[in-house]
Amino acid sequence: MQNDILSSLTRLSDAELVTRITGLVTRERDATAQLVAHLAEFDTRDVYLRDGYGSLHAYCCDALGLSDGEAYNRIEVARAARRFPLILDMLAAGTVTMTAVRLLAPRLTAANHREVLDSAHSRKKGEIEAIVARLSPRPDVQTSVRKLPTSMLDAVAPAGPTAPISLALDLATSDPPAASRCIVATAEAPPAPRAAVMPLSPDRYKLTLTIGGDTLEKLRLAKDMLGHAIPSGDDAAVLDRALTVLLTDLARKKFADTPKPRPTQGNETTRGNKTRTRHIPAAVQRVVWVRDLGRCAFIGATGHRCNQRRFVEFHHLDPAALGGEASVDTIELRCRRHNDYEGRLYFGKRRLDGVKACARRVSCAMRDAGARREACARRRPRTAGNPSSSRARSGTSSPASRPTRAGPEN
Fold it and tell me: Is the pTM of this model over 0.70?
């Protein structure tokens, strides 16, 4: 049955597929709102007790087949909707999500529920957590650091004699560090730990991550070396300084961003740049990066801009392979996926794959040639103080001692 559905979908056009997906999402939202409303009424009755279940959560999991998370979310939202029926309309319209309502429910009151729900309109989970932190601010965490248990280290790092010693770092930070922040060990490390950011209050955040012993030593050394500038040894202030230096260094490497950039040859940042080259001048990169705010500037057919910041690349609006100019008006930022997408629109997938394969072959050939030159140079060292001695060892003669070939007489 499902295979038949998948095979039938391959015959749909792009517009038909988008229309069907939009309709399915609308029906799913309406069904979710209906389910929440029914659970709100179901919670007021003793039906689940009569059927032998000790709680509504147990009934949802065992009788309805919902997971623990699905049951918990729907029950919490149903109880909030019973207090504020406006939630049902917003769920059906898709202006708020189940997760948003669950996070905001404990902070909703008769006086603020409309304003708070309106502020959560089409917000992501991180933005909802920031609203929660604004409604219920929490104090900064306190400073401490400890080594993770061995069993937790085994889950974080691969086993072996060279596996790094990992530590859990819990740091509350913000742009202007003003109060003491913290390093606290996490209770349980996941198999693939990632840094987690949790809002505590307006402009205050708790950063949790696992670091190795070398990183911890670098942090301690940085705190000692900054003792004159940061006598308190505030970890957030040290991290802020380190990130500032890192961003400055990355900007200098990516597009030669310096306080006093070198003057450009000619007007490289205008439309009149006629240099036919794949190279993008640093002056052009600086202007484009600031203009596009370091984000992907691709705009879709519906007018939506991508705005991705990871894996951003400089993109030729007119392909460089077709003689496109490298000027401010013809260069924009693209994420890697959209840069590849537009390349396929111009050249087609087969053509693009061939260009990439050719570029890889040329790169490998150049790398191998460089390795061979370095190997030859190591096999035939030349003495700096006495060039003639190296020539003698290698069996060559100086230009003055070489016999001259007799040329034709004039």
Answer: no
Give dist(CA 315, CA 330) in Å, integer. 8
Phi and psi, residue 176, nearest 5°? -95, 95
CA separation for the pair 364, 285 (Å, rounded): 28
DSSP secondary structure of 81-150: HHH-THHHHHHHHTSS-HHHHHHHGGG--TTTHHHHHHHTTT--HHHHHHHHHHHS--PPPPP---BPPH
Q: Is residue 357 part of a domain?
A: no
Helix (H, G, I), strand (E, B) or coil at 155: helix
128 and 16 in one domain?
yes
Query: In degrees rounded to 5, what are phi and psi of residue 332?
Result: -135, 165
Domain span at residue 322? 256-347
Contacts of 383 (CB under 8 A, 6+ apart): 389, 390
Q: Is residue 399 part of a domain?
A: no
C-alpha span between 173 and 182 (Å, rounded): 9
User: Which tokens go with 288?
Assistant: 């484009």
Q: Would you state the structure tokens that stand for residue 120, as one six-digit string?
A: 């959560």
The angle subtended at Cα 207 by Cα 155 and Cα 225, nearest 5°, is 100
Query: Of 302, 326, 347, which residue constitutes the final position of a domain?
Result: 347
3-state secondary structure 127-142: HHHHHHHHHCCCCCCC
Q: Give the number of domains in the chain.
A: 3
Where does a domain end: 103, 135, 167?
135
Q: Which of 137, 38, 164, 381 is nearest to 48 (CA)?
A: 38
Residues across the chain: 410
SS3 category, 11 = coil
Token pair for 407: 């040329």
- Any bridge partners for residue 361, and if so which? none
Residue 375 falls inside a structural domain: no
DSSP for residue 10: T
List average pLDDT for each run of 10 residues in the chain, which is 410 residues long: 79 93 95 96 92 93 94 95 95 94 94 94 90 90 70 51 46 45 44 73 85 88 91 89 90 78 56 60 90 92 90 89 86 93 80 60 69 71 49 46 46
Q: In what order do the strands lie in the sheet with 196-201?
A: 166-173, 204-212, 196-201
CA distance 306 to 295: 8
Cα separation, 359 vs 353, in Å, equals 10
Which residues lie across from 312 on neighbouring strands?
335
